[in-house]
């Protein structure tokens, strides 16, 4: 079993483990447009496919790489809603955070 992303671990602290992890369920729970979550997931898939050298060992599918990116987006949106700084660097999805907050 591969190590879990810090974003997955942090996300699990605020989102019940027994709930569905679908984009629809997450969108409804956090009041974020599903299209914003889907964009982040799709970017994660693309990042996995275009930069395999950066993917850590144990990640064996694009979905395993994309899901933590989606969780990271949700965490960043929640932070932005509280007045936190929005990170805009590479892989930060700052434009999606703006759309989601």
Describe this protein's structure.
Helices cover 60% and strands 0% of the residues. The chain has helices spanning 6-14, 23-30, 34-50, 62-81, 94-100. The longest helix is centred in the C-terminal third of the chain and has 20 residues, at 62-81. The N and C termini lie far apart (34 Å). 22% of the residues are buried. The model has no long low-confidence stretch (mean pLDDT 88).
What is the element layout, followed by pairings?
Layout: H1 6-14, H2 23-30, H3 34-50, H4 62-81, H5 94-100
Helix pairs in contact: 1-4, 3-4, 3-5, 4-5
Any descriptors?
101 residues; 5 helices; 60% helix; 0% strand
Report the radius of gyration as a whole number of Å. Answer: 13 Å
Shape: globular
**Number of DSSP helices?**
5
Low-confidence stretches: none
Q: Structural class, please?
A: mainly alpha
Distance between the termini: 34 Å
Give a concise summary.
The chain is 60% helix and 0% strand. The chain has helices at 6-14, 23-30, 34-50, 62-81, 94-100.
